[in-house]
């Protein structure tokens, strides 16, 4: 069982996360997100993720949830501020965890393949985006080098706000030039290998399949949303957003 | 595949001069051609034309180019091409997918793709499996993978545009091994056209040399030995690294002066890195002396340049400036200096000059340093004029620094540092990817700056540079148990 959902089609994982999220957005009460969160946490091992890994990936969200709760506790206007605070914090977590689970277990290449093969996204877009993602770490390296290079030229960040802004703008411009140059060269290299060539169909070396289990995963997501909202209605705590 | 070029010329849109013109060339199947010529002779443009990569709307063409009896088209897989920078050629995240990418584009039958991927990876001697992330490869390994991707569709013509220019010596050797293996493989492409400045390294990979003339047309064509015997001198003048040329030594004529910088047990560890990038370096930098720093990839050469240049804060030990370099009462640690003070004492020239450019005109670029040093306007103008003349950039005063050639950019980068009148100059791979002429100019310039009393530190893979220029050499070792060298040329 452990990790058995990790290999599901990326589109199925994203779809399941999406339906849970949309379902939970419909209400602001503690019961629906509470139930959803319990189920979400219970299925974490099925995605092959350890709870420690989940915690490491989602600490900013935990921080946000705590912040929302504190604000509600201190400044809330509802009769039962404690309950409202718990509800809001649970809501943030229950909405975020499915996406964290999905993205933590989706490989970018698999996602691009699935977007092309299942969602029928244009390959020019999906493969181009994949190539661009590969360039992002290079961009971060460029930024560090450019910043240091400005110090070597005698320019420092410690000046007036205007001077800082100008330094930032000049670094940004240089980064843009470097990115465009590399991007143009990459596009030429891709052209040379026949990418986007007219008059021939591109084939796919890697197949992304959408199996019954993938449909079941999305159905399970719908089921979870219905269950959470249903129990919240039955308990009488359901409060529609609109 | 037979290549037939007749009266070919190409002019980029908006340019007055032809990038290449008057080319008549026939390449028979099985020929492996080394294409030489001065920079700007149009070697890369000719390769782009052979690869079908010159779109009609991007310029004006004359003459005809035929590959296998037809005009070349990019999307046919008949022609493969490998460029300089592997980082700007890799598309996919995994090595196997990278090789499969071209086959998918060309519409190969999926069951036929993976056997061909494995086969071509074996041909280039790729040591890893298909699932290896492309980001975990060294520069030389990445370029091997790019070569595999180019060979995968079984092109009848393979074009190589300075495939080792962005690599360190070990990486370049990896690529040449792969090219040699490919040349020995009867199943591999019938014809090869290679552009490469360092002729000696590739001479045994080719059986014909074609020299483009700087004035248009072809200057020489024939077997490698004959062409180099007759035209070696002229080629060297044009910047080609022909084998067997004596390099002129430019060591210091006088004893070094006072100590300017001193390091003790210097070390650096990148934030979050498991081990130090550099450890326990104790050296001095003296006035009127050129220090060469060598070492394999991952030994921390660039890190040392950053530490000596006051651009990185040591995590271990210290860099200290002596009273001869720092102002009285100043902190002796360069990384604590204000940027303006730093630029006036230690100049740093980066491997890629473009990283240091700030202005949109060469003369404005040169004015930034003296202006920061507080010089009045007339003095700034005088300094700029002097630097322009000294670096022979006068005719480019109004040009955008990004549009200069590689050699001009390098001279400009050195000039911008000199504008602040530093006593120490730290250069990271100053001769990287330069042709022989630019190389000789740089050696000359650095030797002159040293003889004027500056302390020069050059970290470099370039054994020739160290041989002719360095008065003292520091060899860094890769730290024991170090992680695999970082990807890329540095």
Structural topology:
The complex is a heterodimer of chains A (242) and B (490).
Chain A: H1 10-25, H2 31-42, H3 51-75, H4 81-104, H5 108-117, H6 123-152, H7 161-192, H8 212-235
Helix pairs in contact in A: 1-4, 1-8, 2-4, 2-8, 3-4, 5-6, 6-7
Chain B: E1 3-12, E2 20-27, E3 32-36, H1 43-50, E4 59-67, E5 79-82, H2 95-105, H3 110-123, H4 139-151, E6 157-161, H5 169-184, E7 191-195, H6 199-202, E8 208-212, E9 218-222, H7 224-237, E10 259-268, E11 278-281, E12 284-286, E13 289-294, H8 301-308, E14 316-321, H9 339-345, E15 346-349, H10 362-372, H11 377-390, H12 406-418, E16 424-428, H13 436-451, E17 455-459, H14 463-469, E18 472-475
Parallel strand pairs in B: 3-7, 3-8, 5-6, 6-7, 13-17, 13-18, 15-16, 16-17
Antiparallel strand pairs in B: 1-2, 1-4, 8-9, 10-11, 10-12, 10-14
Helix pairs in contact in B: 2-3, 2-4, 3-4, 4-5, 10-11, 10-12
Q: How many domains would you count in the coordinates of chain A? A: 2
Number of helices, counting only DSSP H or I runs of 4 residues or more of chain B? 14
Number of strand segments of chain B = 18
Mean pLDDT of chain A: 90
How much strand of chain B? 15-25%
How would you describe this structure to a colleague?
- The complex is a heterodimer of chains A (242) and B (490).
- Chain A has 242 residues and is mostly helical.
- Chain A has two domains: 10-108 and 210-235, no CATH class; 119-192, no CATH class.
- Chain A contains eight helices and no strands.
- Chain A has helices at residues 10-25, 31-42, 51-75, 81-104, 108-117, 123-152, 161-192, 212-235.
- The relative contact order of chain A is 0.18.
- The model of chain A has no long low-confidence stretch (mean pLDDT 90).
- Chain B has 490 residues and is of the alpha/beta class.
- Chain B is 32% helix and 21% strand.
- A six-stranded mixed sheet of chain B has the order 5-6-7-3-8-9, with helices on both faces. In chain B, strands 15-16-17-13-18 form a five-stranded parallel sheet, with helices on both faces.
- In chain B, strand 1 and strand 2 (20-27) form a beta hairpin.
């Amino acid at each position: 069982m452990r990790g058995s959902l990790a290999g599901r089609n990326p589109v199925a994982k994203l779809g399941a996360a999406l339906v849970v999220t949309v379902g939970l957005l419909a209400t602001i009460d503690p019961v629906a997100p509470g139930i959803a969160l319990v189920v979400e946490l219970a299925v974490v091992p099925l995605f092959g993720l350890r709870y420690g890994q989940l915690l490491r990936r989602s600490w900013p969200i935990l921080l946000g949830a705590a912040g929302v709760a504190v604000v509600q506790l201190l400044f809330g206007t509802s009769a039962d501020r404690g309950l409202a605070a718990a509800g809001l914090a649970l809501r943030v977590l229950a909405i975020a965890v499915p996406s964290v689970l999905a993205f933590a277990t989706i490989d970018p290449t698999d996602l691009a393949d699935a977007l092309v093969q299942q969602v029928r996204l244009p390959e020019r877009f999906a493969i181009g985006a994949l190539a661009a993602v590969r360039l992002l770490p290079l961009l971060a390296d460029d930024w560090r080098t450019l910043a240091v290079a400005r110090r070597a030229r005698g320019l420092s960040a410690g000046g007036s706000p205007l001077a800082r802004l100008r330094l930032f703008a000049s670094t940004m411009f240089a980064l843009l030039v470097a990115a465009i140059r590399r991007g143009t060269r990459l596009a030429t290299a891709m052209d040379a290998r026949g990418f986007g060539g007219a008059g021939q169909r591109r084939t796919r070396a890697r197949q992304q399949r959408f199996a019954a289990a993938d449909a079941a995963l999305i159905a399970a997501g719908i089921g979870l949303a219905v269950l959470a909202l249903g129990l919240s209605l039955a308990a009488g705590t359901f409060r529609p957003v609109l | 595949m037979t290549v037939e070029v007749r009266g070919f010329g190409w002019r980029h849109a908006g340019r007055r001069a032809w990038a290449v013109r008057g080319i008549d060339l026939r390449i028979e199947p099985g020929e492996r051609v080394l294409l030489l010529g001065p920079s700007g002779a149009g070697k890369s443009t000719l390769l782009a034309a052979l690869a079908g990569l010159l779109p009609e709307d991007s310029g004006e063409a004359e003459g005809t180019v035929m590959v296998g009896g037809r005009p070349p088209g990019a999307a046919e897989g008949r022609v493969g091409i490998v460029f300089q920078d592997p980082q700007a050629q890799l598309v996919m995240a995994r090595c196997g997918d990278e090789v499969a990418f071209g086959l998918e584009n060309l519409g190969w039958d999926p069951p036929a793709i993976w056997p061909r991927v494995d086969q071509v990876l074996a041909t280039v001697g790729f040591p890893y499996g298909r699932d290896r992330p492309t980001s975990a490869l060294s520069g030389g390994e990445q370029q091997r993978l790019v070569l595999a991707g180019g060979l995968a569709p079984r092109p009848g013509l393979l074009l190589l545009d300075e495939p080792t220019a962005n690599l360190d010596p070990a990486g370049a050797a990896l690529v040449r091994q792969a090219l040699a293996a490919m040349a020995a493989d009867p199943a591999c492409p019938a014809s090869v056209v290679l552009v490469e400045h360092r002729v000696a390294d590739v001479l045994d990979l080719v059986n014909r040399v074609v020299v483009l003339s700087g004035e248009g047309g072809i200057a020489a064509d024939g077997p490698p030995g004959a062409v180099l015997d007759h035209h070696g001198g002229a080629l060297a003048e044009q910047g080609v690294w022909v084998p067997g040329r004596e390099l002129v030594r430019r060591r210091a004529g006088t004893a070094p002066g006072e100590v300017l910088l001193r390091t003790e047990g210097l070390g650096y560890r990148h934030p979050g890195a498991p081990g130090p990038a550099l450890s326990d370096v104790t050296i001095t930098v003296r006035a009127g002396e050129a220090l060469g720093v060598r070492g394999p990839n991952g030994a921390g050469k660039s890190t040392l340049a950053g530490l000596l240049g006051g651009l990185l804060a040591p995590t271990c030990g210290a860099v200290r400036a002596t009273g001869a370099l720092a102002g009285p009462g100043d902190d002796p640690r360069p990384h604590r200096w204000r940027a303006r003070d730093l630029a006036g004492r230690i100049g740093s020239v980066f491997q890629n000059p473009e990283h240091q450019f700030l202005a949109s005109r060469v003369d404005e670029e040169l004015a930034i340093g003296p202006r920061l040093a507080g010089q009045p306007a007339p003095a700034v103008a005088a300094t700029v004029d002097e630097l322009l003349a000294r670096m022979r950039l006068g005719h480019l005063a109004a040009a955008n620094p990004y549009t200069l050639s590689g050699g001009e950019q390098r001279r400009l980068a050195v000039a911008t540092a000199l504008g602040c009148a530093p006593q120490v100059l730290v250069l990271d791979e100053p001769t990287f990817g330069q042709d022989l002429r630019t190389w000789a100019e740089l050696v000359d310039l650095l030797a002159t700056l040293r003889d004027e009393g500056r302390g020069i530190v050059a970290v470099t893979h370039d054994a020739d540079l160290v041989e002719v220029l360095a008065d003292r050499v520091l060899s860094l070792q890769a730290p024991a148990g170090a992680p695999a060298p970082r990807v890329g040329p540095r």
